[in-house]
What we know:
The complex is a heterodimer. Chain A is mainly α. Helices cover 65% and strands 0% of the residues of chain A. Chain A is built from 16 helices and no strands. In chain A, helix 15 runs antiparallel to helix 16.
Amino acid sequence: MTEPVVRRRSGIRGNEATAGWLFVAPAVLILGLFLVLPIGMALWVSVSGWNGQGSPFAPGVPFVGAQNYADLFLAEGLTRENFMISIRNNLYYVAVAVPAQTLLALALALVVNQRFLKGTSFFRTAFYFPSVTSSVAISVVFLFLFANSGAVNALLAMVGISGPAWFADPRGLLHLVLDGLGLVDVDNPPAALTGGGPFGLSWWEWLAGPSVAMSTIIMLVVWTTSGTFMLIFLAALQDVPVQVEEASLIDGANAWQRLRHVTLPMLKPALFLVITLGLIGTWQVFDQIYVMSQGKPANTTLTPAYLSYRTAFTDFEYGVGAAISFVLFLIIVVMTLVQRWVMRDRDEVRPRRRWWPRRGSTS
Amino acid sequence: MTAPGRPARRGGFRTLLGTFLGYAVLVFFALVFLYPFVIQTANSFKTEADAAAHPLSPVPDPFTTAAFTKIFDSTAFPLWIGNSTLVTLLITVGRVFLDSLAGYALARLSFRGRGAVTAMIVAVMAVPGVVLLIPKFLVLNQLGIYNTYTALVLPLLVDAAGVFIMRQFFLSVPTSLEEAARMDGAGVFRTYWSIILPMARPALITLTILSFQASWNEFPHTVVAVQSPQLFTLPRGIANLVSGSLGAGTQYPLKLGAALLATIPVAIIFVIFQRYFVRGAAEGASKE
């Protein structure tokens, strides 16, 4: 990272210092003004009772301390209920989407990387294409695919299944599975579970699983992200030396043994990277919710990101909205740190240094 | 253990089976990833009744361009295209110029505070975008530029990831040429403009394409930057069309057509420059 600094004449050096600052000034100004400063402003708003009228820094705006945060975690009421529902929804969303997109991306990369298959570059492009399209446009397509008279239900009808009304169905998948196994009755849930639970949400509600409506958004996100993650795995696979693979062939290892003991260990850094990016991305889902469901039905597609937006811009409770943003920020930071920590421990093969960073975009 | 290069694996039934299974998987997933676009295109040329009755069919029957006529006649689609084009052009030009300028300074010029600026860029990259929605609104509101073209463009004129991309690129090219130019007495900006930038073409193309794609598709920023329909870009307009007055359940040919038109520019760029996309995504894996 450090380059050898050649001693130059002081005149050019002085010149360089001015030029250096002039060159970075626009970037520093814009990033500082629109990314760093706003975080400070939002921190103040999250401990204030600002309602959107006038400036949040006007003298009349009350300081409410940790009240907005307490409303999210401690105080009984609609605010906490909605927030906890959004956390539950997002937890299930992460728990399904991250493993699904990681496994699908890995599987696709392994197949595309096979040397005995021709024309794989076409398929690589095809799998990646959904990732570059607009999240809004894709959401419209999925609204049609999963509509009551849409393509997915038409496909299901061909095999004799009558598909659900996807976007209107708030039933939790875990509830449905438990009901299907005969363990509980969805219409008459056991009193032991409905009686109480942490943070004002009953155990029964915590155990709902992602709703049918949420599952369509999960499918959409897995579909759009797998291509990008496949490329990360492919880049790592291309770093696996051919000799290693040949050596294992000579040793008589079968395909499964080679995958398990040769390829996968070398993919570990890429695997952790994909999981980290997945965890960060899935806590930020916003566009798809805004276009497809707006939190409906029965709040089962509500996520913290969308809730913070709705609380601020529809309910004009900017303080609570900002507080939700900071809690979300904290969740993502913790996820990242945990991943980093796990990664440092197991990072046996360091990835080749690259000069392109992964773009930190919102899904 | 066994003799080297066991021939049993090569040739014969197993390889044939492997090839067949490999292609079966590839073709199946190609359908999964591409057929939705076929359905989208086909249904945007259908009548509403046909789209509802035969959503899976790739052939419109009857074929009609009614949806597209309606998109241009009875929605603000032309306005959204205009806004999107303007905003995308400004942001892309701004990012390519300002990101490369800053990236060059951080890689090559020695000045006090360089380490701090680099650390800030890296820190900013790690901030999740969705968390910034309310904060961005607050600052735009405070500056009095909420609901203006300035609010749509200015905050996105620089992106930290782009600065970082350019810095890493400039760190990787040899210094001999620019040193020679500087010895000859060329100023810092002149050296940058006529020696460095031409060398940086591959990185600049990648940056241009990523900026174009990101700003053309940008949605959440527009939600907190503007509210007047006069300032809607394509994603914002389409989101409004879908969740707004035209309501759920109907008008699918129209909605799909609008989404299709919004996808086409990025699709064209993707097909032409796909290796740059692939590089941006895959080689971009590591921030370290």
